[in-house]
Specification:
72 residues; 53% strand
Length: 72
């Protein structure tokens, strides 16, 4: 089974996509910091490769959409 874990703070969103059949191996993770500020940093990690970017993310809904789109 694969599980998406989301931890939402006041101005951040952290997430991890894990595989429970494979000793809880982390398949994908990331965090988005600075939600609702003028500049927001988001970092995604997959297969030990990290990608970072910045953008304007106004709401937590936008942050969730950004995270879900990265999973695709």
């Amino acid at each position: 089974m694969k599980i998406l874990v989301i931890n939402s703070g006041s101005s951040s969103l952290k997430f991890s996509f894990i595989d429970t059949k494979n000793k809880f191996k982390e398949l994908f993770s990331g965090h988005i910091d600075g939600i609702s500020l003028s500049s927001c940093l988001f970092i995604f990690k997959k297969n030990n490769k990290e990608t970072s970017n910045s953008a304007s993310v106004k709401t937590h809904q936008e942050a969730i959409n950004l995270a879900l789109n990265a999973l695709k």
